Amino acid sequence: MAREVTLETFAAAWADGGLVVDVREAYEYAAGHVPGARFMPLSTVLDRSAELPAERRVYVICASGNRSKTATDWMRSRGVDAYSVAGGTRGWTQGGRPVATGHHERTA
């Protein structure tokens, strides 16, 4: 079962340089994402989890928190200390937090 953090906990971790992985599709990511979030679409998570550091906590975000739960479970099964962000990007933006737009420049 996916571990989950609140938006408030995530915001504090993000402010401290926490590693964020966005598992939405490219068009969603381009429309607005947490600044600094790495792009790793859900369909690639199983194959690419080894690219993530095992020794560092990873915060997984999607639109609302559903896909991130799935991705978190997959990452955790591969040894990644992953946590799903409850409320997702929608909650992040509704809370008035910063958002970056545009195509991804790097992938996780």
How far apart the termini lie comes to: 23 Å
Strand content: 5-15%
The CATH architecture category equals: 3-Layer(aba) Sandwich
* Largest sheet features: 5 strands, parallel
> Would you report the number of β strands?
5
**Helix share, percent:** 25-40%
Q: Whole-number radius of gyration?
A: 12 Å
- Compute the average pLDDT: 94
Kindly describe this structure.
The protein has 108 residues and is of the alpha/beta class. It is built from 5 helices and 5 strands. The model has no long low-confidence stretch (mean pLDDT 94). The protein has a single domain, classed as Rhodanese-like domain (Oxidized Rhodanese, domain 1), CATH 3.40.250.10. The protein is 35% helix and 15% strand. It has a 5-stranded parallel β-sheet with strand order 1-5-4-2-3.
Features:
single chain, alpha/beta, Oxidized Rhodanese, domain 1, 5 helices
Can you give me a brief rundown of this structure?
The protein is an alpha/beta fold and 108 residues long.
Q: Topology, please?
A:
Elements: E1 4-5, H1 7-15, E2 19-22, H2 26-31, E3 38-39, H3 45-48, E4 58-61, H4 66-77, E5 82-85, H5 88-94
Parallel strand pairs: 1-5, 2-3, 2-4, 4-5
